[in-house]
């Protein structure tokens, strides 16, 4: 079975913001839900078109501290049909 | 709760004589410019009132004998805060003023101050309601709780702000940037200053320029939080006293060693840490995160690139930074020098153009971002 988690948000939300909110989403929906010893897939729902830097920083903080920035996109893959979202995540991580 | 009281208690100035006329504690001002100096005089008056128990139920009349020109929307909002504090303290408040409009201050029309003006519209309950929240045509006002960043409120606000801008034919890429700047600043208030945050946006459509074809609009964004923490406080504490600094933090510490030799009344330690707070990947967050400090200046820079004119600044305490576009350019290593050579480490900032002083102590942080931009169609 794929080591994958699909994030869920309120259906009215299309853009994500807030450092603590990002941390909460990671803690509640990702941490301990996937095995970071293997490749991880984190899927954002189609409704999400953008992530502000505060959300990105909070969401990825622990993952980067534990696995390194280079793990994002390699060992930890972000899945979304929305290229703008992927771009906003990448831009806000560097 | 939005702590307007902090503005008054942090500006205990000289007492002034309170004049009583027709049953009112009278403040009279003949200035034509309503700016930070005016606010300072008003605060002196209000604190004198507060300082005397026998004045505790007095009705206040603010009378401006000449047509006034507000310096900018932030000054209007600070005056609103003072009026709100008076009302919350049990005083009735009346205004008598005529206001001159220009592109920077058309926001007076949307200000709840008009509900305190002498006349048929006088309605202090409506003033309080509109101070807290307003969404009408080209005006957006909301006060966000300090906990907003912990829930999806900021995310929903991000979408709300984009919807708010839609009717004005603004380039969607621009409205995304504006919305992102605002939600990031709201988040900063809650996270770093542990305070509620007031956001106010005015859009003035249908501007024309005498020297350029096309349609323009003006946008003014004011963002204000009152807190016992100034913008650079957390970063200063981290850089100077923390033993766990990452590589970029250590570089700021190194820059501090250079800059501190030049600190004087024109360029102060506070200014250094205000500039440092806007550096890429620098954050007052104490967790030594490698993901912090990446948003703000790039966003402000993006806004300025898209607009034709600008007047953007921030204040915290008595000090402030002017977001002068020529100096908001990252060098190849992603540092901002705030000077002609864009060198943060070996050159002092161009403090005549970049650093400003406030007559009034702002407890917390205040931004005034003003843009004129071309619109489609």
Blueprint of the fold:
The complex is a heterodimer of chains A (94) and B (377).
Chain A: E1 4-6, E2 15-16, H1 19-29, E3 40-43, E4 50-51, H2 53-67, E5 76-79, H3 83-93
Chain B: H1 5-9, E1 19-21, E2 24-29, E3 33-34, H2 36-51, E4 59-64, E5 68-70, H3 73-88, E6 93-96, E7 99-100, H4 124-132, E8 133-136, E9 139-144, H5 153-165, H6 172-192, E10 197-209, E11 212-226, H7 233-241, H8 247-259, H9 269-277, H10 296-306, E12 309-322, H11 351-354, E13 355-374
Parallel strand pairs in B: 2-4, 3-5, 4-6, 5-7
Antiparallel strand pairs in B: 1-2, 8-9, 9-10, 10-11, 11-13, 12-13
Helix pairs in contact in B: 2-3, 3-4, 5-6, 6-10
Q: Are there runs of chain B of 5+ residues with pLDDT below 50, and where?
A: 288-292
Helix content of chain A: 25-40%
Distance between the termini of chain B: 42 Å
Q: What structural class do the secondary elements of chain B suggest?
A: alpha/beta
Q: Largest contact between protein chains?
A: A-B, 29 and 27 residues
Specify the structural class of chain A. alpha/beta
| Strand order, largest beta sheet of chain A | 1-3-5
Shape of chain A: globular
In angstroms, what separates the terminal alpha carbons of chain A? 31 Å
Question: What is the quaternary state of this protein?
Answer: heterodimer
Largest sheet of chain B: 6 strands, antiparallel
Number of strands of chain B: 13
How big a fraction of the residues of chain A is strand? Answer: 15-25%
What is the rounded Rg of chain B?
Answer: 21 Å
Uncertain segments of chain A of ≥5 residues (pLDDT<50)?
none
The number of helical segments of chain A is: 3
- Tally of separate helices of chain B: 11
* Main beta-sheet annotation of chain A: 3 strands, parallel
Q: What is the gyration radius of chain A calculated from CA atoms?
A: 12 Å
Share of helical residues of chain B:
25-40%
Strand proportion of chain B? 25-35%
């Amino acid at each position: 079975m794929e080591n994958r988690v699909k994030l869920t948000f309120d259906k009215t939300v299309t853009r994500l913001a807030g450092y603590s909110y990002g941390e909460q989403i990671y803690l509640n929906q990702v941490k301990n839900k996937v095995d970071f010893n293997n490749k991880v897939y984190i899927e954002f729902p189609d409704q999400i078109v953008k992530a502000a830097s505060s959300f990105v920083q909070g969401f990825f903080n622990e993952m980067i501290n534990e696995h390194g920035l280079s793990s994002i996109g390699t060992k930890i893959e972000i899945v979304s049909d929305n290229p703008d979202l992927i771009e906003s995540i990448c831009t806000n991580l560097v | 709760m939005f702590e307007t009281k902090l503005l008054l208690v942090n500006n205990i100035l000289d007492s002034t004589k309170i004049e009583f006329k027709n049953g009112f504690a009278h403040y009279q001002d003949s200035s034509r410019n309503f700016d930070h100096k005016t606010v300072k005089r008003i605060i002196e008056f209000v604190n004198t009132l507060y300082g005397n128990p026998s004045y505790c139920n007095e009705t206040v009349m603010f009378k401006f004998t000449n047509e006034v020109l507000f310096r900018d929307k932030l000054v209007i909002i600070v005056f609103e805060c003072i009026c709100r504090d008076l009302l919350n303290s049990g005083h009735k408040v009346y205004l008598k003023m005529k206001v001159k409009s220009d592109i920077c201050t058309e926001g007076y029309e949307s200000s709840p101050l008009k509900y305190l003006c002498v006349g048929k519209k006088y309605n202090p309950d409506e003033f309080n309601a509109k101070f807290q929240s307003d969404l009408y045509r080209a005006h957006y006002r909301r006060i966000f709780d300090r906990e907003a960043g912990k829930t999806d409120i900021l995310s929903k606000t991000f979408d709300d702000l984009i919807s708010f801008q839609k009717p004005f034919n603004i380039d969607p890429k621009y409205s995304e940037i504006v919305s992102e700047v605002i939600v990031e600043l709201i988040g900063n208030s809650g996270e770093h200053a542990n305070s509620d945050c007031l956001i106010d946006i005015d859009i003035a459509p249908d501007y024309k320029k005498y020297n350029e074809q096309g349609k323009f609009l003006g946008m003014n964004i004011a963002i204000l939080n009152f807190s016992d923490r100034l913008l650079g406080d957390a970063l200063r504490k981290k850089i100077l006293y923390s033993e766990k600094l990452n590589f970029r933090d250590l570089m700021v510490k190194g820059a501090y060693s250079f800059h501190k030799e030049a600190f004087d009344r024109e360029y102060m330690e506070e200014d250094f840490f205000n500039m440092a707070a806007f550096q890429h990947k620098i954050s007052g967050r104490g967790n030594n995160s490698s993901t912090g400090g990446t948003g703000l200046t790039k966003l402000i820079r993006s806004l300025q690139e898209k607009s034709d004119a600008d007047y953007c600044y921030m204040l915290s305490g008595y000090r402030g930074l002017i977001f002068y576009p020529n100096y908001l350019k990252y060098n190849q290593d992603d540092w901002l020098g705030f000077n002609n050579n864009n060198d943060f480490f070996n050159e002092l900032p161009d403090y005549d153009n970049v650093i400003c002083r406030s007559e009034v102590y702002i407890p917390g942080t205040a931004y005034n971002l003003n843009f004129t931009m071309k619109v489609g169609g």
